[in-house]
Amino acid sequence: MGNGGRSGGPGAHGAPAIRSRQEAKAAPGGGHRAGSAGAWAGSPGPATAGAAVPHRRLRRLVPYLAVLPLALILGGYVIYPLWATFVTSLQAGGRFSLDHYRAFFDRQYTAPMEALVTSLGISLLSVLLAGFVGVSLAFLLNRLEFPGRRLLQTLVLVPISLPPLVGVLSFMFLYGESGIVPRALQHLLGLEQVPFALRGIAGVLAVHTFTMYPFFYMTTATALQGLDPSLEEAARSLGATGWQVWRRVTMPMLTPALVAGSLLVFMQSMASYTAPLLFGVDRTLTMQIYVARTNGDLAMASAFSSVLSMVSIAFLFFMRWYQDRRVYRSLSKGVAYHRAEVRSPLLRWAAMVLSVLGTVLVLLPVFVLVLVSFSVNARWTVQVLPPEYTLENYAAIFSDPRFWEPVRTSLETSFLATVAAALFSVAAAYVVLRLPIRGRGLLDAAIMLPWALPGTVVAINLIAAFNQPGPLTLGRVLVGTFWILPLAYFVRLMPLVFRSTAAALAQQDPSLEEVARSLGATWLYSFRRVVLPLMMPGVLGGALLAFVEGIGEFVASILLYTPDNVPISVEIFRRMYSFEFGTATAYGVLQIVLILIVLGISNRLHGGGRAPAVI
Prior knowledge:
Elements: H1 2-25, H2 31-41, H3 46-89, E1 91-92, E2 95-96, H4 99-104, H5 111-143, E3 144-145, H6 149-155, H7 164-175, H8 180-189, H9 200-225, H10 229-237, H11 242-253, H12 255-271, H13 274-278, H14 285-294, H15 298-324, E4 340-341, H16 345-373, H17 392-399, H18 401-434, H19 440-448, H20 455-465, H21 484-506, H22 510-518, H23 523-552, H24 557-560, H25 568-577, H26 581-605
Parallel strand pairs: 3-4
Antiparallel strand pairs: 1-2
Helix pairs in contact: 3-15, 3-18, 3-20, 5-9, 5-12, 5-14, 6-16, 7-16, 9-12, 10-11, 12-15, 14-15, 15-20, 16-26, 17-18, 18-19, 18-21, 18-23, 18-25, 20-21, 21-23, 22-23, 23-26, 25-26
């Protein structure tokens, strides 16, 4: 009982003792801390309780106040331009009208519907063809062990470094009507005409297939590396054939990877403008948007853009619905797959030949660009290879400031857009993943919305929204100025940086920040010294990839550039149409070198070969 008395004594006198220490701290400078402690203890007086209620309400409002700037940026530069485009498409003669949509679906005026059907057909076929090539290469290079596999595994990703315009140019120089391969076969076989040439939809599909298959390859290769081989072994032990194992076990487990690749390829194909332009396919939505915009019919261009946006977003939701029908996770604890070494001499020789052919096929477009970049302008006509070579193209770029201006414009606009996207993404990732607010999923979806919109749609959205002065532009018209380009790049690149940053933050344990706060660190200090350094690899990785995309951006740039601010991709296009092939490809090679340097830095930041978190 004595022990109980001792324990009971402090219990009886503990509250007054604690209160007396708080009263002692309630001297000047300690009153606020006393009130907080009393409120936390749950035994405040009436005055303290009354003061704690608004304090708690204020603390609940703080996260929403932090969201406000992000919501203003998204609303002002993503949602509002999209809405402005839709409103513009409903205007005719200054009044509300559905005339443009009636014209779109009018059977007598068949161009819009033909453009929609052609764009859908090209995009779906691109998904199938790029999927076949990418998945096949992923299985070959990640399931079999043979000489040359590691080299080919690296080289197969080279097409990622080809910007859209440069990639299409390389295929035209190789397989076009005046391309190297058709001309070589014509001279070799003694034919009057070239035996084949890529043109029309076939040319577009060939470019899409061999420049977009890396999306399928990367996602499938990553999925195969994490696939438990015991599942396939168990299926075979139960009597399943190879086809049944592939159809019932392997493919279902690869569904998330295939969905991701399909989305990327479909969006890229729907946004494709360069390939249809150079291969003469006029009836696509992107081409119709460009034609309507250049003819001054902004309302009709807005209608095309709205339809294209709806198709892209509908495909996004369909693929997500398809993926969410089942759960694609393995509950077993298998080991990583061991590649099967090819022991048969015949198969080993065949694998080596395929490796060499694959390497040449992948690198041939880059080799051709380098070759043509040394050619003399206007001298290469009907010959198989350029007849004369010179260093003048590169000398002009590096010596004449006028030739350097497109490179400077691309670097400046991409840098500004990337910095803005990085700052926004750091704040947005922290809000979405760490702050206790409602509607975080809606905020996440709004940030990723531009990823589902083609570049032509983003450009038309900005033109419709900022062709007049407004509060979001500080009373200025942005269309026709330098600032419309970095703004368009920011909208296009923001989802890429955000997803990489959010992935890096999601890997952090929130208790690290809580420990710093419990040791007396302010929120700003703990964020600067704990959270931000751990996020920085993801931020830098996403920013570098976004910078690469900005340097090669062409689809939005062709609609937004001005004669005083010409990016390098548009300059390549202009040089090519002036038959200055040497200068155009020299710009292209310089563009590829810049992109490879940035990708190399990004690769080192992500552990020397592992895929970035955004993938």
